[in-house]
Amino acid sequence: MSDALNRIETMPLGIVLERRKSASPWAEWAWHPVSVIPGAPPVEGAWRLLREGEGWAQFHAATLPLELFRTDTEGYKLNLSQEPPRLWVVLRAHDGLGESGEPGVVVPFVVTASAHECEGYQVSGSEIVETVPMPDEVIALVRDFTEQHHVDIPFVKRERKRHFPKGE
C-alpha cells in the first residue's frame, strides 16, 4: 500500500526554534526546537520572531504536516505510553542564509509522533533529531487515531531450519 493511501490524518504544526548564544568556539549560535503550534499557518518569507531575551530568540521557523499512518500505530502507542508524550522534530543543516536571514541555521524538515519513524533519522547522523512536548490537541488526535486504527499483531517466533539433514 502506498504512503498516500496509507496516510489517514494530517495536522499542520508550526515549528518553534530557539536560537541561543553557543558555548562552542566553532558556532556563534545553537538552534533547538522548543515547541510546536497546532494548526499554525504556513511561514512565507522570513521566519516570524515570536519572543526574545538577552542572548536568545524564538522563531516560528516553518509549518510542517504531522502525518499519521495506519501502519505506524505501534509507534504512536509507545509514544503515548510515555510521560509526557513527545513529538520528534528533525532539523537539517542549511549552509547559506536561512529564511530568517541568519547564516548557518538549521531548517525544520520533518515532525513525527512515531517513536519508530524518528529512529531512522537518528541513525543517519546527518540530521539533528530533538523532542518537544506534545500539546494536548495533538495528544487527543494521536490517541483517537491509534484507538481507531491499531491492530495488535501477535509475536510469532520463527523456527530455525536445520542446515544439515538430521542423519548427518
Automatic annotation (TrEMBL):
Q: Which organism is it from?
A: Azospirillum rugosum
Q: Which InterPro entries does UniProt cross-reference here?
A: DUF3305 (IPR021736)
One short Pfam name that applies is: DUF3305
What is the name attached to this protein's record? DUF3305 domain-containing protein
